[in-house]
Amino acid sequence: MKAWNKIAISLGIVVVGVPLAIAGLFIYATRDMCGNEVYSELLSPNREHKVIVFQRYCGATTGFSTQISILDSDEELKNNSGNIYIIDGHPKDVLPDARWASNTELRIERRLNGSEYKAESSWGFLDEIKVTYGAGSR
Q: Less packed terminus of the chain by CB within 10 Å, N or C?
């Protein structure tokens, strides 16, 4: 009877344990390797929205990027890409000045030159915020 117990336990490990180990390795290998580091956060004049300028880094095989998102003021920045603006480079080198011109307009003080991965001109549906770009200090 002891031999059958050993066979049953071994078979159980193979049938249950191996698939669980493979699933765990798959989840580990496909987890998000990116992270965000906030550089600045600025509330809109009416305090309903905020603009967040941050650095996104996705591991040794990728470079740094500077990104900008507009969020509701009570929303936290998730581990996502910027929803308004994305450009290659570390923020210490390419950081654009972002400021609120009004409750419904965000001004990014950097002239668009085609090197941007994303440069949206608006955000939101009902309370749309217009995003404008122009020559700034960089």
A: N
* Distance separating alpha carbons of residues 30 and 42, to the nearest angstrom: 33
How far from 113 is each of 110, 117, 131, CA to CA, in Å?
9, 11, 16
CA distance 27 to 25: 5
Nearest CA to 85 out of 39, 44, 126, 31 is that of 39
Could you tell me if 59 and 29 are in contact, meaning their C-beta atoms sit under 8 angstroms apart? no
Q: What is the mean pLDDT of residues 85-92?
A: 89
Separation CA 85–CA 113 (nearest Å): 13
pLDDT over 50 at 79, yes or no: yes
Nearest one of 81, 99, 102 to 136, comparing CA atoms: 99
**First CA to last CA across the chain, in angstroms?**
79
* Per-residue pLDDT at 137 exceeds 70: no
Predicted model pTM: 0.73
